[in-house]
Design brief:
The chain is of the alpha/beta class. It is built from twelve helices and 18 strands.
């Protein structure tokens, strides 16, 4: 017979004022990455399959802020008002959950930790199958020292067995509620650092699970700056280019900026560098700036016989002016002859020089068409190119 999994609730504490985070809204209602902190935290639990109910404790003056930043969800209960301290706010949330009935375990989490991951939630919830309490912990890795009120360095503190506590902290609901009630009756709630301290002091078996450095708490202004950096999503663009030039009379071809002796020449208005033409189109396309013909019309006499490096340099200048960075460039030349391999490194160096990027970001490859088509019949050369652009002005 399969046992029924426990009904697990999340209790999110959002009743603090968070003044150390800087002026403005309480930190749980401020935005990071364009989304309120509390909304991110709530979503981590409402989206988790092991969480059946989410209860939030808020400051009684913050209901309007709460309503504007917290979306409706079937798992989300109406908020309850907190008390004068974190412990009192947690107690109010525990009592609200207890009155609903049917909840076996509870995971208590700080609203100001919006980067809690699903794996950490799993670890804490799983630990409760064999313990009455569990909390996420990170071992102390930095040197630890006493510092006095005047900021003077004191004696070292051994890191052995020292860990940093995080949330969520999970517990059997009825056992934790009994511990909180006992602390309240003894007027000692304010003496404890966190929920696990209250549980441990009142006889609960509490175990540690591995925490996550990414699950940091937003406390100071610099924490918000770091959060914005973590959430910054780069504007990544991808462009493609394709070009073909037929063979005509001549004794050399220009490919990717390198002149190569051959028994034919490529025909075109400029130097007919099929590789640089395809690459120019790829860069322009990635930034949605049209194609090479728009910027350098083939019927304009000023471009007759022009070095195609001018076209590529112009495209690079345009996309950089728009705020883009060239991440990588890739060119594939399709021909039976001339052989590209002996010249590929020189081609990469030439492209890297024109674009002012490292050669490690430039690829030049070649392939035949197995004697098929116009390339296989040696009637001309084709080129495909791709460009990855990152950035762009907002």
């Amino acid at each position: 017979m399969t046992s029924t999994p426990p009904h697990t609730a999340a209790l999110i504490v959002a009743a603090g004022r968070g003044m150390r985070a800087g002026e403005g809204l309480p930190k749980q209602y401020r935005s990071v990455g364009g989304r309120p902190v509390l909304a991110r935290t709530v979503a981590a639990f409402t989206d988790h399959p092991r969480i059946g109910t989410v209860q939030i404790v808020i400051h009684p003056d913050d209901r309007a802020l709460y309503d504007t930043c917290t979306p409706e969800h079937e798992k989300l209960l109406p908020p309850v008002s907190g008390g004068d301290s974190r412990a009192e706010s947690v107690l109010q949330g525990l009592r609200a959950l207890a009155t609903r009935g049917g909840i076996d375990t509870v995971l208590i989490h700080d609203a100001a930790r919006p980067f809690v991951g699903a794996a950490m939630i799993d670890r804490v919830a799983t630990a409760l199958t064999g313990a009455e309490g569990a909390l996420a912990m990170l071992p102390a890795v930095d040197a630890m020292r006493h510092v006095d009120a005047q900021g003077r360095i004191g004696a070292d503190i051994s890191r052995t067995g020292i860990c940093r506590a995080q949330t969520p902290q999970g517990f059997r609901l009825t056992r934790l509620l009994d511990a909180f009630a006992a602390a309240e009756a003894g007027d000692t709630l304010a003496e404890y650092a966190d929920d696990a301290a209250i549980a441990f002091a009142h006889g609960l078996h509490v175990v540690a699970v591995h925490g996550d450095a990414a699950n940091f708490k937003l406390t100071m202004p610099e924490d918000f700056a770091m959060a914005e950096q973590l959430l910054a999503v780069p504007d990544v663009r991808h462009g493609q280019g394709f070009d073909v030039h037929a063979f005509g009379e001549g004794n050399r071809v220009t490919l990717c900026g390198i002149s190569i002796p051959h028994d034919k020449a490529l025909s075109g208005h400029s130097d007919a560098d099929v590789g640089l033409h395809a690459l120019t189109d790829a860069i322009l396309g990635g930034a949605a700036m049209g194609d090479i013909g728009r910027h350098f019309p083939p019927d304009d006499p000023q471009w007759r016989g022009a070095d195609s490096a001018l076209f590529l340099a112009h495209a690079v200048a345009l996309v950089r002016e728009a705020g883009f960075v060239l991440s990588n460039l890739d060119v594939t030349l399709m021909c039976e002859r001339p052989k590209i391999g002996p010249h590929a490194t020189a081609m990469r160096e030439r492209i890297a020089g024109i674009c002012d990027i490292d050669i490690s970001r430039v690829s030049v490859k070649a392939t035949t068409t197995e004697r098929l088509g116009f390339c296989g019949r040696e009637e001309g050369i084709a080129a495909m190119a791709s460009a990855c652009l990152i950035g762009g002005k907002a």
